[in-house]
Specification:
- With 302 residues, the protein is α/β, with parallel strands linked by helices.
- It has two domains: 2-112 and 236-301, FAD/NAD(P)-binding domain (3-Layer(bba) Sandwich), CATH 3.50.50; 120-232, FAD/NAD(P)-binding domain (3-Layer(bba) Sandwich), CATH 3.50.50.
- The protein is built from seven helices and 17 strands.
- Bound molecules: flavin-adenine dinucleotide.
């Protein structure tokens, strides 16, 4: 079976692309390796998607999936490993065999880099967040921690300091790595303190995160920070290694593409958080999904 379009990733970008492509009467297969709905399923409450005052990430993901499947999208649980150019078609090699299509949309998203320590998964959405823009409002008036000292962490600290009672920045290095302008802003904030040269050692709490144990990077001395929540901002992890020979990938691992969602391969398109862009949110992912699908349909109809 040769599909018109194979979409890699069933997050907001991939499922939106599927909706648009199916409505253009294309035969569409979506490959998903883990969770239908992508990252947003980790969010207990989404309050910034236009037209929906409040919904859980899972609710949004369920609706997207229902809409895509209702229009005829086929779904396979499989991890796409690489692409092969067969001339008229592209072969997607996966851990469950090969799938073939005349066009491919890569919508593999990006994962916030986790700390990689025990209990982290358990507390996601229960005191641990990776996105201040998304979840900051839930911590209004609270005392929270920000792990990380780069530009993103400092930008998020500025945002959080306006709504939280206090923000404690914990940075593993002996200095903050963000821009001087941002560091000055942080220094001016009375409710922000910075703890340098410390790494997170352990996370404690019953159902919700309550205590974070940090360790001095050189002396090994430990201290316990009691907190209402912890934001982790130590970079993102796109997972595009397998496609790096088919499309251009920048040094951080994102697929290089503009708002047109085109890649160097005329039959391969890219949508959502996995491409180079400034704002990674559902609105921008769904926008990309529609743009990539329309571009793929135009390519197929040429
Ligand atoms: C905790 C949290 C809260 C958030 N809250 C908000 C919010 O309130 N508002 C907002 O706008 N945004 C929020 N975001 C950001 C938002 O979720 C993302 O911007 C959005 O999900 C990006 O969509 P995407 O489809 O590009 O990527 P993703 O959602 O990352 O989806 C990509 C999908 O591709 C799959 N995949 C990856 N590689 C492969 C492969 N090789 N083969 C098969 N499948 C693959 C992944 O498993 C995933 O399901 C939040 C993110 C997090 C983590």
């Amino acid at each position: 079976m040769v599909y018109d379009i194979i979409i890699v990733g069933a997050g907001p970008a991939g499922l939106t692309a599927a909706i648009y492509a199916c409505r253009a009467e294309k035969k569409v297969l979506v490959l998903e390796k883990a969770t239908f709905g992508g990252q947003i399923t980790s969010s207990p409450c989404v309050e910034n998607y236009p037209g929906f005052v409040k919904m859980s990430g899972n609710e949004f993901a369920d609706k997207l999936l229902e809409q895509a499947m209702g229009l005829g999208t086929e779904i396979e649980m499989a991890e796409a490993l690489s692409l092969e150019n067969k001339g008229e078609t592209r072969l997607v090699h996966t851990d469950r065999g090969d799938f073939e299509a005349r066009a491919v949309i890569l919508a593999t998203g990006a994962r916030h880099r986790p700390l990689g320590i025990e209990n982290e998964e358990k507390f996601v959405g229960r005191g641990i967040s990776y996105c201040a823009v998304c979840d900051g409002a839930f911590y209004r008036g609270k005392d929270i921690l920000m792990i990380g000292g780069g530009n993103s962490a400092l930008q998020e600290t500025v945002l959080l300091s306006d709504m939280c009672h206090s923000v404690t920045v914990v940075q593993n290095l002996a200095f903050l790595t963000g821009e001087p302008r941002l560091i000055r802003k942080i220094e001016e904030k009375e409710n922000v303190r910075v703890i340098l040269s410390h790494v997170v050692e352990a996370l404690e709490g019953d159902t919700d995160l309550r205590r974070v144990i940090i360790r001095h990077a050189e002396t090994g001395e430990k201290q316990t920070l009691v907190t209402d929540g912890m934001f982790v901002c130590i970079g993102q992890m796109p997972e595009n290694e397998g496609f790096a020979s088919s499309v251009e990938v920048n040094e951080a691992g994102y697929i290089t593409a503009g708002e047109d969602c085109l890649t160097k391969d005329e039959a391969v398109f890219v949508a959502g958080d996995c491409r180079t862009k400034r704002v990674r949110q559902i609105t921008t992912a769904t926008a990309d999904g529609s743009i990539a699908a329309v571009a793929a349909c135009r390519y197929l109809d040429k």
